[in-house]
Amino acid sequence: MKAALMAKQFDVAGRLVTVESAGRGNVNDTYLAVFRTAFSEERFILQRLNLRVFPRPEWIMANLRVVTGHAHRQLEDEADRSDRIWQLPRIIPAKDGRDFITDGDGDCWRAISHIASAHSYEKVQSLEHAREAGIVLGHFQRVISDIPAAELHDTLPGFHITPGYLDKLDAALAAPAGRQRLESSPEARHCLDFIAQRRGWCSVLEDARAAGQLALRPIHGDPKVANIMIDDATGKGTCIVDLDTVKPGLIQYDVGDCLRSCCNPAGEEAQDLAAVYFDTDLCRAIIRGYMLHARDFLTSADHAFLYDAIRLIAFELGLRFFADFLAGDIYFKTLYEGQNLNRAKVQFKLCESIETRESQIRTLLAEEAR
Ligand code: GN1
Ligand code: MG
What we know:
Layout: H1 2-7, E1 15-21, E2 29-36, E3 41-49, H2 57-78, E4 91-92, E5 101-102, E6 108-113, E7 118-119, H3 127-143, H4 162-174, H5 176-183, H6 186-196, H7 204-210, E8 217-219, E9 228-231, E10 237-240, E11 247-249, H8 251-262, H9 280-294, H10 300-304, H11 306-327, H12 339-356, H13 358-369
Antiparallel strand pairs: 1-2, 2-3, 3-6, 4-6, 5-6, 7-9, 8-11, 9-10
Helix pairs in contact: 3-8, 3-9, 4-11, 6-12, 8-11, 9-13, 11-12
2-acetamido-2-deoxy-1-O-phosphono-alpha-D-glucopyranose is lined by residues 25-27, 53, 156, 222, 224, 242, 245, 268, 317.
């Protein structure tokens, strides 16, 4: 298997024991590699980068160096004052010293250290888990807050700029194959109506940014529940992984993404739409945890746009899945026909649930901001 051959190119002691598929990312392929010597074992995460989504792997790795270097120094400085041992993976270089390798097919592979004795979950497990997710996000945003924007490449231009995803949708619909996919499914036509009713509103964050109300800061970009590692021994969050989308953005993208992911107990892949809803108790727990670190750096305008962010990122992810379904599943990996349409329906159901709970959510956001 190719992953095994690639694993052997990285600089760890011992001989390869196993390489197994790990994680359920929608973009990159992820494996866990295990190496042993006569007296030790080393595990690392091996990934094949999806070059269709990330065409500049050298930028991904340069950013990863900057972010992990900065964060590791900061974590070290704060270690004595911290309520836990915070972690963050490091890059494992190839034996020839490079940060990634390219195989004969042009695929790109990189290795990062494995966070031992910790796990992440596809769905939120409890109120405590939700609170930890909020703490981890706030802590990470604070730790990376002083990385100068000029030191980070834009690895994914247009990421989280919602109106840009409308353009992608329109392009997919302009192609005969896209039109056909739409016409073949009443559910797809329903999704399109759902989007049409929210077209005018969906530039809300970009408008606020253009008007100077919201400022860019380094953000994680993808703080979904599956990227938050929980320490097996203490139940506390220990780190956030998947750092490929760290770049300057609006903190609202992160808060919205964390909440749309953690407050839907049925998860992103739910088959039963009736089980999908936005749980406001989980939302309160996350915001409470998040504010422990974020209260100090959030402006009053930041607070004012949090509700819109929660609604928007659920809508945006639904839009992204839906546009990809119409385009023929070229961005998000799928395991079955219609999976991206189903994912879109889940996010739109969640978005509706957020809309019906607007006043409750606004009230709890105001209460937890104090
Ligand atoms: C993708 O590959 P993964 O699962 O870490 C996507 C995120 C979505 C997420 C939804 C680079 O992340 O934006 O929120 O799927 N990442 C990219 O599960 O597009
Ligand atoms: Mg990701």
